[in-house]
Amino acid sequence: MRYAVLFYAHEQAMMESMGSPGGVDEHVSAFASWSRDVGERLTGGAPLAPSPTATTVRVRNGDIITTDGPFAETKEVLAGFQVLEAGDLDEAIEIAARNPIAGSGAVELRPIAE
Question: Where residue 68 sits, what CATH number does that domain have?
């Protein structure tokens, strides 16, 4: 079964830690280690640019409305995603729990409709 693994992080805290000496290297190293551990079960994904670069699009009464930034104001923002192959939800949970974001943010698992 394939799952979308969505990473939610406290963006300001993450940016501050990445701005500290060695912060980017530490962040990248932690994700690289997790990715190596999970191996070929990860079949795609990418980090996302900071939330202020987002544009939300809505259509209301035929009018296109755009808003700068993410859809909702929240402390945790969608920071990136992966696609994970797992035997079942229990295996996907075990893998997601080892991701470094799980310790300070949230990792959402969503089955991919096949």
Answer: 3.30.70.1060
